[in-house]
Design goal:
11 helices; mainly alpha
């Protein structure tokens, strides 16, 4: 029986995933996955309550009735909570299925367990970003943990800024753990593991950036109709 230990997997990935490879059963995944989802929902609810990232809605406060404004904030909050549940599920399933294409020799349960570690890091990133977003009013593109600030010094092109802002120290750490995890769980080369992880992460942030920009465009369009 292999027990999921997130700290060990992040600090000693080679030893941890070496033991996971030999495991016949895995215990603790669902409890930890559920805990991360709950934390994600709490952060989303707190953000909605405190009005984090609702500046675009607030700008139209003088143009619409108070009831409509509060309803818009409610919808924004509900959307954030739904996203806080859907995003982790999508991330885990995306990487699990993509990795399975290139690593058919690794069992499904071990591949999905591997994704728990990037999910933990992404959740910690949200937690650490929260005070910057709430207290200072920093936008996601300008997170102190990402490269969005640097790209904004070179261009103001929305898609480029959005895309690069998804590259953070936590994403790099996640990719590092994924590379070691794939290598230790399979007999394939380091080059194959690195190539798979880099490709899948680039594809993921590309799709995430496209979705984010589309949502922003829809929001701008709706505001224009107010």
């Amino acid at each position: 029986m292999h027990h999921v230990r997130i700290v060990e997997g992040l600090t000693e990935p080679s030893a941890y995933f070496g033991k996971l490879k030999k495991a016949e059963a895995i215990k603790g995944f669902y409890a930890r996955f559920t805990a991360l989802i709950v934390l994600s929902v709490i952060l989303a609810a707190a953000s909605a309550y405190l009005g984090v990232h609702t500046e675009d809605i607030t700008a139209y406060l003088d143009l619409i009735k108070r009831e409509k404004f509060e309803f818009a904030k409610l919808l924004f909050g509900i959307g954030g909570i739904v996203a806080s549940i859907a995003a982790p599920l999508i991330m885990v399933l995306f990487f699990t299925f993509v990795f399975k294409v290139f690593y058919r020799d690794i069992e499904w349960d071990k591949l999905i367990t591997l994704q728990l570690f990037p999910l933990f890091l992404m959740t910690m990133e949200k937690l650490l970003n929260f005070p910057f977003f709430h207290l200072i009013g920093v936008q996601r593109d300008s997170s102190p943990f990402g490269f969005g600030v640097l790209i904004q010094l070179m261009t103001d092109q929305i898609f480029a800024v959005t895309l690069v802002s998804f590259i953070t120290v936590f994403l790099i750490w996640s990719a590092y753990v994924q590379i070691i995890g794939l290598k230790m769980l399979s007999d394939k080369s380091w080059k194959h593991a690195a190539g798979t992880v880099i490709f899948s992460n680039l594809l993921y942030i590309l799709l995430a950036a496209v979705f984010t920009v589309l949502v922003q465009d829809i929001g701008i369009s709706l505001q224009g109709d107010v």
